[in-house]
């Protein structure tokens, strides 16, 4: 039974038609056979969706037009004007005997689109038909592309815009501008113009956005806020001290007993000398602190060991070591949290 079935299967397989594929032939080369690909399909190119023309009539006559392709957008620009505005495009247009069409990769950012980013760059750097004013919306793109395409004129315009508007913006906006200046390596003077507005942020906000700043700038901001805190403390002390030197009108002077007929006597209180008397009694008793300070009043802090002035030249008393340690420990924990989160994210990946 097994042999019969086995024979039946053999006869079935032998009766089936077999396919014979032709052998691939190639051109012989020194006895070796090389298989040549038959595919002749051209490279796929993105279709041009729109064309933006930045040429004038003189460019068409002189033949100085060039085409810059950014994804699906074609920019018709003057070769001379763009070369004057950007060292990058000057090198591109002069290479290989002068190229007239260039494909440019603007950036890897998708919002706004690369075509929009390059349009902002063209309109803010090429003077024809007219320079577009830089705004808060286009500032970061212009700063980045000014460095990307080595456009010194656009870089100077961005620096001027930051100088003129940094102090009038909200502190968090100025912080973003300062971060862009650090990221794109703008001049230190441009960074300095943003720092007074950034210093208005609270200490908690500065700690939360510490990753956006360098260690040197972060230290300078803390030092500026510390000195400003000392000045505010002195101002509070001056205000309270002036309020303590008050005057009132009484029927009789409590010091010399002087009275005025049918009138009240003006009595002055001098907390510095711990005296109360009329104008005649207090004629030579002025404010002792103002006399010693000569117009520059100083606030003081009374600790259990000494009376310490509040300024940036005074060392902290030994009793403040515990408080300093607690603040330093808390700041170290805050700065280490982002690193721990980053390490945990990497371990999960």
From TrEMBL:
Q: InterPro entries this protein is in? A: BTB-MATH_domain_protein (IPR052664), BTB/POZ_dom (IPR000210), SKP1/BTB/POZ_sf (IPR011333)
Domain BTB positions: 64-123
Query: What Pfam family is a match for this entry?
Result: BTB
Provide the residue span(s) of the region labelled Disordered. Answer: 1-43, 330-349
Q: Which Gene3D superfamilies match?
A: Potassium Channel Kv1.1, Chain A
Organism, per UniProt? Mesorhabditis spiculigera
This protein is called BTB domain-containing protein
Q: Which segments show compositional bias classed as Polar residues?
A: 1-16, 24-40
């Amino acid at each position: 039974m097994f042999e019969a079935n086995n024979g039946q299967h053999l006869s079935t397989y032998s009766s089936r038609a077999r396919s014979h594929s032709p052998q691939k032939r190639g051109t012989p080369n020194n006895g070796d056979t090389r298989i040549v690909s038959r595919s002749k399909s051209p490279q796929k190119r993105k279709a041009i969706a729109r064309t933006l023309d930045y040429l004038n009539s003189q460019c068409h006559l002189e033949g100085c037009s060039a085409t810059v392709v950014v994804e699906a957008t074609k920019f018709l620009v003057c070769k001379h004007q763009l070369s004057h505005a950007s060292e990058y495009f000057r090198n591109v247009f002069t290479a290989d005997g002068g190229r007239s069409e260039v494909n440019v990769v603007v950036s890897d950012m998708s919002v706004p689109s690369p075509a929009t980013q390059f349009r902002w760059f063209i309109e803010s750097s090429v003077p024809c038909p007219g320079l577009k004013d830089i705004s808060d919306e286009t500032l970061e793109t212009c700063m980045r592309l000014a460095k990307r395409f080595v456009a010194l004129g656009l870089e100077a315009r961005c620096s001027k815009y930051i100088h003129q508007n940094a102090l009038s913006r909200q502190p968090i906006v100025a912080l973003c501008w300062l971060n862009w200046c650090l990221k794109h390596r703008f001049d230190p003077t441009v960074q300095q113009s943003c720092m007074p507005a950034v210093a208005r942020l609270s200490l908690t906000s500065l700690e939360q956005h510490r990753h956006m700043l360098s260690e040197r700038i972060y230290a300078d901001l803390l030092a500026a806020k510390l000195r400003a805190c000392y000045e505010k403390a002195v101002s509070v002390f001056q205000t309270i001290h002036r309020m303590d030197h008050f005057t009132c009108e009484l029927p009789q002077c409590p010091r010399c007993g002087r009275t005025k007929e049918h009138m009240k006597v003006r009595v002055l209180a001098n907390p510095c000398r711990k005296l109360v008397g009329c104008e005649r009694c207090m004629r030579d008793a002025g404010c002792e602190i103002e006399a010693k300070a000569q117009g520059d009043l100083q606030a003081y802090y009374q600790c259990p060991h000494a009376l310490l002035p509040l300024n940036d030249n005074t060392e902290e008393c030994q009793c403040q070591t515990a408080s300093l340690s607690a603040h330093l420990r808390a700041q170290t924990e805050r700065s280490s949290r982002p690193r721990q989160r980053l390490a945990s994210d990497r371990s999960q990946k």
